[in-house]
Amino acid sequence: MKFVVNITACLVLTGLFPLPSAAQETTPATNAAPAAQTQSQPRTQGQNQAPTPQAQTDKKDKDQDKDSQPQSGQGKVKGTSNDRLFYALPNFLTLKRGENLPPLTAKDKFKVVAQGTFDYVQYPWWGMISAVGQAADSEPAYGQGWLSYAKRYGTTAADSTIENFMVGAVFPSILRQDPRFYYSEDGRFGRRLGYAVSRIFVSRSDSGKAQFNYSEIFGSATAAAISTYSYHPKSTYIRTPTNPHLFIPSDRTLINTSSVWATQLTLDTITIVIKEFWPDVHRKMARKTRADPPAVGGFNRQPDLGGAERAESR
Prior knowledge:
There is one protein chain. By secondary structure, the chain is mainly alpha-helical. 53% of the residues lie in helices and 9% in strands. It has helices spanning 2-16, 35-40, 53-67, 106-117, 122-136, 146-175, 189-198, 214-230, 254-291, 307-313, and strands spanning 84-85, 89-90, 94-96, 177-178, 181-183, 202-205, 210-212, 236-238, 246-248, 295-296, 299-300. A 3-stranded antiparallel beta sheet has the order 4-6-7. Strands 1-2 form a two-stranded antiparallel sheet. Strand 8 and strand 9 form a beta hairpin. Helix 4 (106-117) runs antiparallel to helix 6 (146-175).
C-alpha cells in the first residue's frame, strides 16, 4: 500500500511541477555592410564566420544535457547537489559516481537532511499520503474525521522525519559513513539495476572505502522502533455504526515494528533505483521539450506568405 501511495504521489507532484519549456533563442540580424566596403575589402577564408545553426543547436543540447544532471558542489551544502526527483522531490544527496568529493562533516549531514526533510514539497506529500491512509482506514484506532486526519498527518510527518535523520545524519555521523548516493550511468540496465539495489547493503566510509551500510539497516530499524512504540496507537475501543464498543488491538508490537522496518527498506530501495535512472529520464524529457515547436495561442504559427506567393499558391 505504501509503495502505491508514494508512486501515486510522485505522479501527482510531477503534474503540479511540470518541466518549463525551453526558451527559443533568436539572433538579431546584423546590418548589411555597404557595397563599396564589401568590394574593397574581400572576405578572407575563415574570418568572421558565424557558427552554423546546427553547431549552435548541438552546443546548446550538450550544455542543457550537462545541466540536467546533479552537479557536485552546487547544492546549498558543499559536496551535495541541488537536484529534484520529478522536478519536485528533494534529491540533494545524489551525485555522479567517480567524482572526487570532500567528506561531509557531521554538521553538513544534519544540515542537508534537514533541508530535504522540511522542504516545501514535503508538506503536500505528507498530506496526500495521509489522505490515502484515511481513505483506506489504516490504523483504524485513529477513526475518521478531520481530527483523525490530523493524527495521521502528524504520524506520517514524524515517521518520515525520524527515518530521514536516523539514516542520513545520526548513524552516518556516529559511524563516519557517507550518506550520499552515487549514480553510475555505466553498463546496461541490468547491471545498473543491480548496482542501485546493492546500495542498500553497501555504502562508503567518509574516507571513501566500501563498507556495509550500517546506517541504512540499523538506522531504519531504530526509526521503526522509535515511531512504533512512542506515538502510534495503543489498543483502544472505538464506536462504529454497527458496533459501539469495537476493540482495536495495539499497533505497538514487534510484528508491526518489523513490518514498518521492512516497508522502509523496500521504499528506500525503490527510491535508490529511481535515483539511478532519473538523470536518463531527465535528459530525455528535456530533449523532448526542446523538440516541441513554439506555439502561439495553442496553435503552431505558420509563415506569412507575401501577396505574390499567395497568388501562386492559389
